[in-house]
Each structure stands twice: as C-alpha cells, then as structure tokens.
Write a structure and sequence with these properties.
Chain lengths: 417, 417
C-alpha cells in the first residue's frame, strides 16, 4: 500500500472544528488509496501555556521535566484526531513517542532522532487500520524519559517518519498555501512556486521565510523525502502547494528562485584588530559562548601601520539586533582580558539583510553583478556582502529593505513562472 | 528510610501557587526524614476540559483514545510538582504511568491495577532522590496502551502505591480538613473525627460523604493502609485531619460514628408481583442492564389472594431520582415481554435516605429501636428500612431530611468526642 505522511501544525488543529477539517484532508488521501501517518502539533497556544508554567515554576528548569510537561499538548491532539477519524469510519489510532517508539538522544529539549523502528505501526496497518496519528515534537530516550525536539520539531518528526517508512511524499499543512518567491506582503507580484529545490528551500528557511523549519528541510534533503507545503484552510488536491524536492525533479530552473530578507539585523565592526593566528577564534569563541548568533562575517585584508611591526585588520559581522548588548559585553570582556585588541567598536543597529537564492546560479555568471547594479540604480548602498554557491546576501540600511526586495524581484523576473 | 504517600487533588494543584503550597507540605515530610511518593491529580477543571473535547469529537468514543487524552492533565502537574520540589533543593522526578510502570487491566476508562513493580522508583530513591511524583489516575496495559482508572482514581492510585511500597501512611490532601460526623452545612455541631474505621468510612463514602472515593477505601482496608484525610489549605502537622484505619487502632469506639444522607432518592414499588423462584432476578436483571443503580431493596412476605392458586408479593426498591424514567421503561418492557407480572407500579420521587453508621453497633443492641423512636418523636414517617452489621438506613420524605439528620446527630451524642 502506498504511504503518505501528513503533518498538521498548531493553527491547523487549534480547535475541534479545525481538527475535523484536517481529518477530512486525511480522509481524501485514504480514499485515494493511501495508508497515512499523520503528525500533529499541539493546539496553537497550548505549548506556550505549558512553557509558561514551567518557567513560572523554575528558572533553571530540569529539561527532563520540561519535556515531560510540554509534550502533553501533542498527545491530546493525536488522540482527538484519531477519534475524529474513527467517527468518519476510518480505522485509526494515536501513538505517543514512547509507544512507537521514537528513539532519540537524551539531549532534552533539543533531542535528535536515533531510530524509528517500523514494527509497531506496520503491525497496526497490517491489522487493518488506515491511519497512524503520531504526536509530533517528542521522543523517548533509551532510559525511558520523554524528550522533545525543540521548537518546530513537528516538521522534523514528519520528515523522519517519511524517511523511515519510505513515504511517497510528506505533506506539511500549514496556514500559508505554499512557498513564494518573496513575502507577498512586501511584493504584491510575489508568485507561489510550484517546485523548489531542497538547497534553495534551506537558504530561504534559514533566511527568514518561516514556512518550514530548517532542520526538517536538511533531513528531507539527506533522505530525499519529497516535501510539500500546502494550506490546511483551502481545498487542496494533488497539485496544490509547493513541492520541495531534489533539483533533478525541477526541469528548468531559473537563475534566481526567490528573494529573502531579514529585517532586524545589526552590524558590528571591530576596528584595527591585531591580526595574528587565532584572532578570529578569540573574537567569535566568546560570542558563541554568550549565545550570540553571528551570521555574516567579513574580514578585510590586513594592513601595516607606519612605525608598528604588527599587522592590523578590520573585522565586521552581522547579528540580530536584540543580541547587540550581549555581544558588546562579550567583546569588551575579551578586550579587558587581553585576548583581543582593537581600537574601536562600531555598532550599526539600523540594517537589514536581503538575499537572492537560486540553484541556477551555479551555472550562471554575472548574477552578483546584476544584483549590485540593480541596487546601485536605486541608490541603495551595500554595507556587507557574502556569497555562497546558491545565494548572495547583502546588508543594507533597513529603510531601503522593501525597495531592495521589490527591485530584485523585478530584476530577476520572479513574477513569471 | 520510612516512606509516606501524599496525594494532592485537583483543587490542591489548581495553579502554580497551589502547587508551591503543596510542595511545601512535601518538604515538611522530607525534613521529618521520609522518602515521599507524591500522587497528583490534574489541575481542577483540566480533566473536564479534556473530556469535553473527547465528547465533542465522538459520542461513542474509543475509550483507548479517551484514556490517552484525559491522562495528559496529570502528566503536566506531575512535571510541575517535580520542578517545584527541585527549586526547593529536593531531589525529585516525575513518573508517568508507563514509566513506573503502573500495570493495569485493559478495561479502558475504568481499569484496575494488576501490579506496581517497585524496581524503578526504588532505584531512583537509591540514586539519591527523595521524592517520586507520580501522575495519578492512570496506568498502562500489557500491550502498551494508556489506561485511566475512572473518576476519583487518583485516591486509588495513592492507596495502591502505599500498599506496594509499604508506606507508613497515605495522606490524602483535599479541600476539607477531615471527615465529619455529618455534613457541617446541615448540623452546625458536626464534629471532625480524629479516627474512623475503614468499614465506617466505606459506608460513609458510599452514602454520599464525598471525601474519599469508595474504591480507595476498599483497597486501603484490604491492604491495611492507614489513610489520612487532611486539608491542603491549612497548616498541618502529624495530628491533623482524620485517620482512616483498622478498628483495632480505635481504642473505644462510639456505637454510632456518623450520620450520612443522600438527598435525591426515589422509591419504586411493584404491587402484586407474582412470587415464584427467579422473580427477583427477572426484575433486577433488566434494571442493571439499563444502568439503574438500585440501592435498598425490600420484599414483603408473600400473600395468597382468594380464588387464585398463585402467591403474590410487593417489591420496593430505591434508586437515584434521575434514573426513574429509565427504570420505568425497563420494568414496562419486562412486563410487556411476560418476564414479570405486576398489578401496579408506584413511584415516589420525593424521598431521601438517612443512615447511621458505626462499628460499635455490632456489640450493642437497641440502636435501631433508639433511631426509630427518635424519628417517631419528630413525627417523621419511615418508608423503607435496611440494615447491615454496622449501618441502619431509612428512606423518609425528603422535606424531613435535615430534621432527621439533626435529630439523629443529637440522639447519638455525636457532638462530643
């Protein structure tokens, strides 16, 4: 029997009506001849309520207890979904993480999969049930303690089950109807993509297109799980939404597939850093320890200063605005301890990042030049540039962000399929 | 290390403040040198919310899914209680039913204990933890499905753990400060009892004194678990509340310990039932099938009717008022099928039951006579009488119920210890 994995997020199971609506989508797939593994999140708001109770009880909480508590929301929706499917005459049962079992590491609150044995669920399908409803976001350690996978973990659960059970596809039902070339709230001509390659989705996901959790896309890419993003609030059929797949499935891909952005970026520059082996580690080690998420890093070439035998460089990096104070403190501590020397620390909290992403870039030259020219034509100054094989990112003044996104969307002709 | 079981009901863990308050009571016992097994209910209202969702999804629901859903409330409070105890510097962890494991039958929604192996929790105590916080009301089948014990099951969980672990005492913290000689809302002179025998508590519990669930008292009696009922909202020490214990622990017991009552009783009389072997079964079998809870049953002596070779009798029984219609239909169906014959069905829905309970009755004569005389002196007519070794119950007009309870409380001197 062909098998599908269908995942419903918190807004898709927020109340009994929405659970019924989601169950109807499962019913449609069962009618098409599939066995289905359904992965459910907790009702939207429930996990936050539980986390609030944990944090209200203990500041430095035991993550084993945190996991035991916050995993309960998914158990409730899994049971309710199974009941609703039964009500529709579909053989279904719920599965909690320890019942499958979903074996994970014991890194509580951010556990990783170890194995998902198929025996129990396969036996349930063999016994006549058509649907296995699995509580997302959770697992169990070898020692029998409950774990969770960290926020957004239900997407990852879905992909892991699709891989373990060789599912034909993993459908992620959410509150948007697919992946767009950019945010339609900024560019009205933004277009829903029919297909997108894993690598592109990965860059878009980590750049702030919050449709899919990065880790789930990585996992899908590794196991070649065809991932579909579609809306649980609209009528859907087999061609709805956006398919995230191997690039080989995409016949002819455009040079640039999408424009991503991240609004609340800051830029910090360390001026006249003494350039010696190990200086980058001396700067970014303490930042990492201080939980600062450094994104782009640019180091200028070294220069000599007259009358000084040492070499000096400027080091610039970007980070989320709300981590600037933490970063400052970490750097000043490093300087005070003598681990790092610099003349000045310049902070710019009014920047944004804009990126173009596309696997077609690999075989095309001139994409960066075209991008820079387009921004220049609008008088948008570029502060930092970083590039990867399939992505070019620039840091610019925040006030120009919308203009830059619109300009690049036009320049690369993204409104046309 | 001596061990205590402490059970906190839904109102005692209704929010984070109350959980903290309950945790302080656990802390006091740990300070006295006890290892403690804490049994928690769900936050008050949570189980009802979950049951509402189940019933809103499916009318004839799969009880396996019901159990998986409604058991989640206790998992949350168990985790929160463990965190709060850790915050106080007390080694503690939570235990869900399947982790202990609490092995039960697979009678979902009303499962019974099969075994509670001590290995895992004993190992946890041996590892240095002082408190095991166990989610009440739940268990797990041999096949790995979650079960619940039915409403009030957390009391039963507490007693079962006390028996399995040989606890010195099982303390049931609730929203009243003990067991009273009768309801203080009706008799202002009602007195809190220091001790009460299991048998008496059992009669009081099943008669409507809703402090402890009947099943938990039965279990405590069978395993001789000393049970204490006390308030979680007042300062308590080792002498607080009411101890429910073996009668041997009660030095000198009064003839009557308490007066119980049940307000909403109805009385049904089948007039001129043909009296032949099997007639009682023919009447009460169908009533049981119709889920009618018949309580008192009285059968008058048979009589002969002139010109008829058969014997006839009148059969009277009591039942909850809200089950009268169901009982009527079952009896009329039996009559229509010819299984039972009777001349008339008389229903009285304006009655109440009043009972006096006391193990001292066993060795004292004249208790019934004294009770009937006291009621007669107040012109209260007795409609039905039943007696057991330690209880005398009468059915009377509902409007006299309060008067009867006050009169009997006075007559047997219950205001004095």
């Amino acid at each position: 029997m062909p098998l599908l994995v269908m995942k419903f997020g918190g807004t898709s199971v927020a109340n009994l009506d929405r659970i019924e609506n989601a169950a109807k989508k499962v019913q449609e797939e069962v009618a098409r001849g599939y066995d289905v593994i359904v992965i459910v999140s907790a009702m939207s708001g429930k996990t936050n309520e539980l986390v609030g109770w944990v944090e209200g009880t203990s500041k430095l909480y035991d993550t084993r207890e945190y996991d035991a508590i916050v995993s309960s929301g998914e158990n409730v929706t899994a049971g309710l979904m199974a009941l609703r499917l039964q009500e529709m005459g579909i053989g279904a049962r719920s599965w909690q993480g320890w019942q499958v079992p979903i074996n994970t590491t014991d890194a509580h609150a951010s556990a990783r999969f170890v194995s998902i044995p198929r025996e129990n669920i396969d036996a349930d399908f063999a016994g006549g049930n058509k649907v296995a409803v699995v509580a997302g976001f959770q697992g169990v350690t070898e020692g029998g303690r409950i774990t969770t996978l960290g926020r957004g973990g239900s997407d990852t659960t879905a992909v892991a089950f699709a891989a373990a059970f060789g599912a034909e596809r993993c459908d992620i039902y959410t509150d948007v109807d697919g992946v767009y070339t950019t945010d339609p709230r900024i560019v009205s001509k933004a277009r829903k993509m029919e297909k997108i390659a894993f690598e592109e989705m990965l860059e878009l996901a980590s750049l702030g297109a919050k449709v899919l959790q990065t880790r789930s896309v990585e996992l899908a890419m590794r196991y070649k799980v065809r991932l579909r993003v579609l809306s649980s609030f609209e009528a859907t059929d087999e061609t709805s939404g956006t398919l995230v797949c191997d690039e080989e499935e995409i016949m002819e891909s455009k040079v640039v597939s999408g424009v991503a952005f991240s609004r609340d970026e800051a830029k910090m520059t360390l001026v006249r850093v003494e350039d010696r082996p190990g200086v980058a580690a001396a700067i970014f080690g303490p930042l990492a320890e201080a939980q600062v998420n450094v994104d782009m890093i640019v180091q200028n070439i070294s220069e000599k200063v007259a009358g000084d035998a040492k070499l000096y460089t400027d080091m610039t990096f970007s980070l989320p605005v709300n981590q600037v104070e933490r970063a400052k403190k970490a750097l000043e501590d490093s300087r005070a301890s003598g681990a790092v020397t610099y003349a000045e620390l310049i902070t710019d909290t009014e920047t944004a990042k804009v990126s173009v992403v596309g696997i077609g870039m690999r075989s095309q030259v001139g994409v960066a030049a075209k991008m820079f020219a387009a921004l220049a034509a609008e008088n948008i100054n570029i502060k930092v540039i970083t590039t990867s094989e399939i992505k070019i990112s620039v840091l610019i003044d925040r006030k120009y962000m919308e203009l830059a996104v619109q300009t690049l969307h036009d320049t690369f002709g993204l409104e046309q399929a």
